[in-house]
Amino acid sequence: MTDRTNPEDPGTQSDPARRQFQDAGERRTALLRYGLVAIISLLIGGGLMFLALRGERTPAGVPGEHAGGHSATTSEGAAAPGAGGENAAGPGTKGMPGMEGQAQPAGEHPTQASGSTVFISPARQQLIGVRTALVEHRALDTTIRAVGTLAYDETRVTQVNTKVAGWIERVYVDYVGKPVRRGEPLFSVYSPDLVATQSEYLLALKARDQFASSQVPETRASSESLLAATRQRLTLWDISDAQIAELEKTRQPRRSLTLHAPFTGIVLERNAFAGQYVTPEIAAFKLADLSTIWVIGQVFEYELAQIAVGQEADIDFPYGEYGRTIKGRIGFIYPDIDPQTRRARVRVEFGNTGGTFKPGTYVTVSIKTRGGHVLAVPKEAVIDTGAKQVAIVALPNGYFEPREIKVGQPTDEFYPVLSGLAAGDQIVTSAQFLVDSEANLQSAMQAMSMSMPGMDMGGQKKPASPPPPPPTPPSGKPQEMPGMKMPPPKAPGIPKDQMDDMPGMPGMKKPATKTPPVPPKKSGGHDQHRLLTPPAASDAPHPGGAR
How does DSSP classify residue 542? Predict the structure, then answer.
């Protein structure tokens, strides 16, 4: 019997179509498995969330009973909220995993509290270190501290000029900073005009002596007036009475004029040198008296209202330079503000006996001021956010309330209260940031309870009636949970060619599909190892047997 195998066997031609059909089946199976796992996960998570959100706290006034009438206890067997147990769920956290709170005493919520009130048990207060202080009237004494600089007393600075033109012959004070005493010679100057005036004075003096015995009164008067005019000219040129007396005694004009220091001080500037020609407009020396010294301090604008002329001030030197505090008084408040530092200047005056203190030294100026008897709170009790000030008010029965207040300019340890607090209020001075964060958390959870139905945040009374049953979803459609979106159902009747073209899901391995072996044909032994495929219409056997 000859082998009549066709090279284009239908079984060979159908292998790619068969494999494509098998791959499409595997993709459909994987897609259905993934979708089933996702839907089951969503349903389980949604059910747990629904149960957590539907769990209700025992309403105030109904101790030991839930809305459905069952007794409420914690997981540790402690009393339900309202019983005062430490392990009971706090407001807004009952039934929420990981949000164990603390019990609030039933029926003791203060009537003056606002919605942001938070309860903290005494044990928790001791744990976080809550301390309170009383709001009361205090005498607000403060100390204003400013940086200052020592400066010369401007009222004791002078310049030494010559009144006549001439040449400097000798300089006695020859460097800047040299201390001088009153009457000490500074320099000598030769002036032809001064010599001529001295000669005129000697002539007038001689004429007065000659006409002193004259019988004519007018002659005696003329000689006296000439002498007086000449003496006046010498005096205006800074010739002292002692020098004039010496001139009258010697009857010889002096070649040079010596100028002396007008007071005790130091030399700030020197413009006199030997042989130099000087005129009246040239300042030969500049001297300063250091018996009194100034401190120029800089204070902020808002501190000016607390400063007045005549107030006492303490001057401290850096690094304990002089080992003591100097007392002084405010002598002047400058009328301008420095445009760069935005500070005002004050002048403090104090004595400098012996010239110990040096101008230009940096010092610290402390000005003590006395305020009125006003309502005040400690500085550490105020939470200043920049835009507002907040204080944590301690209410009875362990409740705390963040309250917005207004305060004035701070003193050493206190803020004056302008509004928001009254005398006798208790405010938190330690751990107030923890209390404020607790109150903010509770406010946020209350806002969540308003936007998410079925969530009990505590502090809101609910009727003790069982919750209505959830609406029955229509047949064939999953029920949508509040706040959850269900995936859209699959459109029925996806064409086979689209299902075949769907890619495999990432991260999932397609299981291998085992194809059962097909028994060999009985007509012959040539095709025993070939798998059967659905025959085509043209390959269908004839009723009569072989073709």
Answer: B
